[in-house]
Amino acid sequence: MLFNSIEFAVFLPIVFLLYWFVFQKSISNQNLLILLVSYIFYAWWDWRFLFLLAFSTFLDYFAGLKIEQSNTKSRSKFWLILSIGINLGFLGFFKYYNFFVNELTAAIANAGIRIDPWTLKVILPVGISFYTFHGLSYIIDVYKKRIVAEKHFVDYAVFVSYFPLLVAGPIERATHLLPQFKRARTFNYQNAADGMRQILWGLFKKVVIADNCATYANAIFNSSGEHNGSSLFIGALFFTFQIYGDFSGYSDIALGVSRLFGIELLRNFAFPYFSRDIAEFWRRWHISLSTWFRDYLYFPLGGSQGGTWMKVRNTFIIFVVSGFWHGANWTFLAWGFLNALYFIPLLLLDKNRNNIDIISTHKLLPSLKEFFQIMVTFFLTVIAWIFFRSDTIAQAFSILREIFSKSAFQTPDFLGKHDMIYLLIHCTMIGVLLVMEWLHRDKQHALQFNAGTARSTAKRWAIYATIVVCILLFGGKQNNFIYFQF
Q1: Whose CA is closest to 205, among 152, 268, 159, 288?
Q2: DSSP at 47
Q3: What is the reported pTM?
Q4: What angle (nearest 5°) sits at the alpha carbon of residue 411, between those of residues 410 and 416?
Q5: DSSP string spanning 350-371?
Q6: Which of 87, 128, 436, 481 has the fewest CB atoms within 10 Å, i.e. is most exposed?
Q7: Residue 147 backbone dihedrals phi, psi, to 5 degrees
Q8: Is pLDDT at 124 greater than 90 in this prediction?
Q9: Is 326 annotated in the active site?
Q10: Are 191 and 404 in contact (CB under 8 A)?
Q11: pLDDT tens sequence across 146-169
Q12: Which of 227, 286, 326, 426 is catalytic?
């Protein structure tokens, strides 16, 4: 079930009414309702993969209890390794099996030996990377004694399968989300109203920005060999805004929906395209994944406590693994490797935490230095996204060669005259996105307004109405969220 679908527009109010008006007197009943509707939400996509979600939930719940009951370190570690191994085994099987088989087959063929590989004819289960990481964080936290093992199965199952974050995050922590399912929730009008505003902004980013950008980006990347450098760079720009509008839009909707039920999720985006360096970008982009790898991989490897070699090694590991997490393709590994190359100079010069404040606080515009930093960081990010979007490494390098050739100064060749009006409208919508987020860069989302006078209230409602009209008039073709495939 898509957030941007009629089905979800019917599903959400029904769940909301049941949650607050039928089951409001019992935490257990509310949690049971959320668990049931979460499984319905997931089954709407493909009910056959419910067994994977249920198995992963049972495995980690049981392993958590066994870890806590173990009276020796070795027995506790056995259950930790068993849980991690099975979870990653399922993830690897469904996500990477065909990739490794095909790569092995190609390598053997290059040696003059031809074999007929057996590959799976199944689709990747939606959300498997996200709910697997939910379970892993829980089991590791229990092992590290950061949290006690959850005894109530329904509460734990809700934590793993909570429908707003089930298929594309954010990647939650048991230490943050589980306690919220243990205590009573009371309806808070102000919180719910702001959640609705966040949902509206998320829909604008998905439907108006991402889905329209996808039309241009797909057309250009799918026929990249036919276009000049300027067209290819514009295609890369469209994908840059597509993936941001798509993924951050999903996160905004997820956080907003969850606030309707009195549950706060981890923030996943903090206006990353206003970053002044790559280190700041990665503190603001897909925050839940970046911090997950930091806490559960980077720190255990030694973090930045060792010598220069350890810092460099650990940084490359984190970025390459992050790339591999996104999918079974060399292009994702290249994307991760390139971001590591961007990051390493900042780390070695001890400048990776130079920009941890909000840019241009209490100022309308950035300084010239800040503007230049934003532009450089944005350009580097666009170049990296080319690898992420390309089908092959060869295609990515071919696009880059053309972008850095003389044809980059030619008139773009991907549009006919009749398309110019649509392009102008869409660029205007991107401008609205940037202006709104810049003006509210110190907030959680771009429609988080402070309470004020009746006059300011009228302005806010005018903005809401304008956004609704933009969604209705300029919404693109309905597409799946990009991160459903990860």
Answers
A1: 268
A2: G
A3: 0.93
A4: 150
A5: T-TTS--SPTTTT-SS--HHHH
A6: 436
A7: -150, 150
A8: no
A9: yes
A10: no
A11: 999 999 999 999 999 999 999 888
A12: 326
